[in-house]
Amino acid sequence: MKKIWTILLAVTMMLPLAACTPSEGNIDTDGTKDQTEAEVTTVGETEKETFFETNGNTELDEHKYDCGLPENLSFGGKEIGILYVDGRESELISTAPGNGVVSDAVYERNLAVENRLGVKFVFHRVGDGTATASSLEDMVGSGDTTAEIFTLSADLCMTPVTRGAYVDLNGVEHVDLSKMYWCRGYNDMMTLQNKQFVVSSPAAVTLLQLQYSTLFNRTLLALRGLPDLYDVVDSGDWTLDYQLSLAQDVYEDTDGNGKESKYDFYGFVTGSNVSLDGYCVGANVPLISHDAEGKLYYSGADESVSERFSALNEKVSALYNVHGTYVCANNYIMSKFAFDECLMSTALFSYVESCIYVLDDMNFGMAPLPKLTKEQTSYRTYVEGANTTFGISAAVTDAARRDMLGAVMEAMAYYSNELVRPAYYEHALPESFLQDARSRKALDDLYENIAFDYCFVENVGELRNTLRGVLPTPNAPMDTYQKQWKKTVKNGLARYMRDLDELQ
Fold it and tell me: If you average pLDDT over every residue of the chain, what do you get?
């Protein structure tokens, strides 16, 4: 049976991921399952279970998830045109209940928004992502308002943004990005020169699927007398050094051939390329930041960041080259973890989703990416830069119409957090995991600490691709790389900022 599952896992995980980078997992947002369908209830008919918890009873905590739209806001049945990229329709469209947990939640979300605001969604499909980026500019240039809300993969947004395809949301009523149901990490990163053109939220199932975490086998930790990583995370001790100590201390030469092989038991199993992208974000080493005027600049050369980056290179290269770490093909990572052949592994949510039935018999946990040091104030969740984004077409010139679209985007974010996010977790994770209170809290912590670094979305000056070779390399010549990046990234960002300056 294990051999069958291994084959199924390998085939499933080799499917292409729609992202800006080489594939590390498949995206399947339709939420279909072979098990019984989730019962769909009308919003308000029963109290919806949510996955977040407030920290205390302060007014801020009580209302940070509340939808702030006026109670009597209604638009009399007006149609809302939404453009989507071919292949990502399942995030937005569900025509009837009974097609799976996530699909049912999308259906219920859409009904909730339409009923709450008195609107009707009309969806318009455009080709692949690259074609869509050009289409946005053409639509705006011709004044075409057939589609008024644009959705697009994050890694393709910057060109249409700088060419004036989007409205600055700061001038749109009803959009409140301070609410916790928005993705603050992405939205903060895309606040450019104090303007906000594109945003993301759990309305994008890809935002959930592309989160990175560290899976760990709680049973195997306990059998070895090691602390539960949830306790280590809570104490603030979950660092790269701690992960290194676990990786090197638990390696076992399972096949007895006297050398490392794919059949041995490892402390840590991970991948190359995309798996490396999250370390800068997780360790809070910002390579591209905002200056005082809200412009993006290369911050990797700042003294404090440069020092942290050198320390990160030292720790990541040690982790990747230690005896107990196995760096393997990406489609093999979850196979090793699911069959108790490692203590920890790097994991996208889509990895977990692809082998939920194997994990159902495991006692596992999900930790954030480790911190650089104990002194780092918080954990940070990296999201691969292909999450779906939302924005209003600049072809919409009527202020009242823009405000209506702002209300629609706000309601979609709110109801997606209430309905789609829990449904996705129910679909992607075993029921036993969701029944564990500490594991459920881990999901909230991962989501609320989502963070981005612009270089891993846009790959300015080939910085992202170069980093994949630098981070796992011991004694990398950092001074040489810093000089190279400072020049190429600076030039790339300058072009974007000049284009933004020229927008009306």
Answer: 86
